[in-house]
């Protein structure tokens, strides 16, 4: 998860630095220009002149925004850009004293609720979570979808099923038995004490007064959505890969295995590989993709550079000097995700001579 942490005062900056210690990769700290020489930090920091401009850029660039400031300021800054719970980043607000952490936006699908709990535990703050299902202690299907990297469809069914849960109704969970990794989804649901029903072929018709969740691939979805039914479709997992010249297949597969284990997945769950066109003839990389039976897309430097600029990706001077751009794994994964982008499951991580980034498409 790519994260930006904002603060407006010296006290807020110190809390942002503490919070960054509990964020994957540390995140990027954003501070006003007037604090440039008053906050000592070795952390990657961006200084802004106008908060509104910095928030506008960050809203489209990051998976999560953590704001140490008054909630009212954050609401006013975000208002023009909020679009959909399916695509908006997670937004958290902390008071400067670190007493409370508020899950403000994208609590379930964006992961704000879970991130709030984790960061509050790290700094000793009280988590403030207001989504009704969390308050009443029931597991909402869109929250489960976020954990399992599933896309909820249609959006309108989320509220229908969550309302049913709050009224004490039970949800039926169905899984297509021929869905790749169906056993994984079944095991994850059972770990939450959710019983599932397997089906093969056409999706069973919805029963009278039944509220249900159906996990199936996009190709098997009906042309017209049935009532009281939320469909959960697996998102593609894209692996952006960079490597030194001559790295053997075994080392690349080992790096992919370690990277996937860090997000609780197996390499077989990768749907697509992406890299720089400079590596289009790299035998080890081609062999690794072939072993896993996945396509690999190669992108020219111009497209990688555009993603580096669009998302403010960190660059390596060594990589830039070697191939012309300073970030391969994250930039290539974002290229493969397309215009709608994706949420970073694992930022670029070095495994010796192989660098891997994992991204869930939106």
TrEMBL record:
<dbReference type="GO" id="GO:0009236">
    <property type="term" value="P:cobalamin biosynthetic process"/>
</dbReference>
<protein>
    <recommendedName>
        <fullName>CbiG</fullName>
    </recommendedName>
</protein>
<dbReference type="InterPro" id="IPR021744">
    <property type="entry name" value="CbiG_N"/>
</dbReference>
<dbReference type="Pfam" id="PF01890">
    <property type="entry name" value="CbiG_C"/>
</dbReference>
<dbReference type="InterPro" id="IPR052553">
    <property type="entry name" value="CbiG_hydrolase"/>
</dbReference>
<feature type="domain" description="CobE/GbiG C-terminal">
    <location>
        <begin position="237"/>
        <end position="358"/>
    </location>
</feature>
<dbReference type="InterPro" id="IPR038029">
    <property type="entry name" value="GbiG_N_sf"/>
</dbReference>
<dbReference type="Pfam" id="PF11760">
    <property type="entry name" value="CbiG_N"/>
</dbReference>
<dbReference type="InterPro" id="IPR002750">
    <property type="entry name" value="CobE/GbiG_C"/>
</dbReference>
<dbReference type="InterPro" id="IPR036518">
    <property type="entry name" value="CobE/GbiG_C_sf"/>
</dbReference>
<feature type="domain" description="Cobalamin synthesis G N-terminal">
    <location>
        <begin position="54"/>
        <end position="134"/>
    </location>
</feature>
